[in-house]
């Protein structure tokens, strides 16, 4: 019997190596043939005032872009301004983002807070026909005089912030500071010439084409080369809840809620039992209270608006010949102007002037209508109660000499007359005394 020879260790090593190579070959081929995954470009749009909801939305979008290792995030911006606290949160999210951020001013403008966001971006782009700037801090009506040391302090701080952002991004620090100190505003061509933006584009596709292969410098000094030829654009939108809260965080809508809420309560108090005006008023005031959690409310302004409604109520109770009405309208307008003015606001942040005019005009019309109705009610002949019987006509149910019975206004009454009246004659009520009608015969 022939003994089986034991394979040598060298042979086993050769066979094992060959098997590994043969098994790995298809995998290498598959890997080589697998197409490269397309990069992600996220786009978000902010086209309202800057407030805590918009700040949270942008931060969440940047967090998602970082988690998904996106190539780029484009923020399409159109804003008149907003809260400095929310703006600073957004800028911190932009400057600390692992994903490069492009701010694309599209639609109308990036004023005040929007200007700071634009110069803080890795890449700043404007669409034709847009503008940016006008970033002077808001002077708070009745709280901080324009020429006070406090206002100068706020202005200096904002100017230093603009210079710092512009310098770190390699932009024109002087032009950025003038946007704060002088409220300078720039068209897209002026901003490009001054070095505040990188280029002008019509849409996102044009932005991606312009940035292909470009090397950008991040806020921390690192340089990144952008490869955008095979990217997939994904739009991130606000949820229904975020859109609802964003609406409530709009100063103009919040002012309307306060006005309608107070008017609803006013109507309910003057016309008890209607229910609907009071219910609408309470709901609007609750929504306004929710708005105050997101907006810097000036409670002096709220008090003035409430005082205006109170003056309208007193006008119907106390004859002031229009003095209380004028005072109420003045309180409404001044209160609306002050309602959301705060040191936290940058630029045009508050109730729109056209809305203030509409509120004042609406109040004047409402008061004119109510006053007219009240005057008419005083002049109108009473139709109910004892006083409503005066001058009413009826029929004598018996001879009246001097007492008898009459039927007037659908009711039976005891009556008396100064002259005898035959049964069946027509009578007219002259006076009511102690539930007895003084009547006279109708000739």
How would you summarize the topology of this molecule?
Layout: H1 9-33, E1 39-46, H2 52-67, E2 72-79, E3 81-83, H3 84-96, E4 101-111, H4 113-120, E5 123-126, E6 131-133, H5 149-168, H6 173-181, E7 185-187, H7 188-194, E8 199-200, H8 204-211, E9 215-217, E10 223-225, E11 231-235, H9 240-248, H10 251-270, H11 276-291, H12 299-317, H13 323-338, E12 345-347, H14 353-379, E13 393-396, E14 403-408, E15 411-417, E16 426-433, E17 436-441
Parallel strand pairs: 1-2, 1-11, 2-4, 4-5, 4-6, 5-8, 15-17
Antiparallel strand pairs: 3-12, 6-7, 9-10, 13-14, 13-16, 14-15, 16-17
Helix pairs in contact: 2-3, 3-4, 5-6, 10-11, 10-12, 12-13, 13-14
List keywords for this structure.
443 residues; alpha/beta; 2-enoyl-CoA Hydratase, Chain A, domain 1; OB fold (Dihydrolipoamide Acetyltransferase, E2P); 8-stranded mixed β-sheet; 5-stranded mixed β-barrel; 17 strands; 48% helix; disordered N terminus
Can you tell me about this structure?
By secondary structure, the protein is of the alpha/beta class. The chain folds into three domains: 203 residues, Alpha-Beta Complex (2-enoyl-CoA Hydratase, Chain A, domain 1); 130 residues, no CATH class; 56 residues, Nucleic acid-binding proteins (OB fold (Dihydrolipoamide Acetyltransferase, E2P)), CATH 2.40.50. Helix content is 48%, strand content 20%. The strands form four sheets. Strands 1, 2, 4, 5, 6, 7, 8 and 11 form an eight-stranded mixed β-sheet that branches. A five-stranded mixed barrel has the order 13-14-15-17-16. It has a two-stranded antiparallel sheet with strand order 3-12. Helix 5 packs antiparallel against helix 6 and helix 12 packs antiparallel against helix 13. The longest helix is centred in the C-terminal third of the chain and has 27 residues. It is elongated and about 115 Å long. It starts with 8 loop residues before the first helix and ends with a strand.
